């Protein structure tokens, strides 16, 4: 008989969840003829005989089709943990950006495997996933974080289905409803940015805020900006590399940087921002002298923004500390990356230079052209136009930087409450 009963000590219910009670399950075994000879199809552990009988009928029809490829039973028996860890390495490295790849690995490790990692791959059900999502919500995770976990599972399980490791994709049949994404924070207006600048001038946040909020650099571009890519005589700097997305804690030296999306991004240093660059260069030399004088080791990574010993900052730590800074200064809530949006919005509103603003932000020429609805054959811009483009960037940046008119903070009016840290003491 193709269906057989079997006693188990821990039976699953109709949703595939372990009950902790003994009971009877039903296994399906079907012998069929394949092009390479006789084979046996097996699927075990049905909660009821009715389910097993229904599956038997479905599979007999499919196996009678010569083009049908049966499930690879051995692969389906691996755990979700085993499958996802192998899948994310093989799929992620080949198809995802480094930042997305790191995000996938982090979500799998922290938000998926603790809940369903032990489950056998071919035993994973939509009910298990719905239960997992509910636990994540109860844990206090945001809608976007839980939705991201669902997206990872949907993609990975669909690949497992296409590999014939499982019959169906359980992530496609969940009943969890994800609400609409929350409204992202509004970028700072020019007056708000002016106030924010006045609060961070003279602190270690000064140059990171200048690069993000006045130039629109990304976090990794900022912490990866090297002094040898800054030319104070020509009043310009090149954003030609960035810090690798995830560096291990305790890293002291960076042997290789990651490339940027646009490797020919040259930005002018305006008269308004030159003092910040000069002060940062002076700070680097002072920190280096203090470390060496104290008998310590200075790690000369040539980073414009680094720890006192020259070692690199990690983006996750810097992002978290920025959140503390915003709360401490009682400014409207934004993320560090929103400073980039602030720069983009304010430059565009002040100048209308959509194309030039896109170049300042490091958008590709092709991408800018597509946004403008014009020819996408823009990568062939010849060298004779480089100076013209640089001059346009300077005009846009000067207009924005002059509008900010950063000033020193008014201590009496701007000083935060006495029981809080001074802004100069807020760590990067």
From TrEMBL:
Record function comment: Site-specific tyrosine recombinase, which acts by catalyzing the cutting and rejoining of the recombining DNA molecules.
Family indicated by similarity: Belongs to the 'phage' integrase family.
UniProt GO BP: DNA integration; DNA recombination
Keywords: DNA integration, DNA recombination, DNA-binding
UniProt protein name: Integrase
Residues in Tyr recombinase domain copies: 183-398
Location of region: Disordered: 405-428
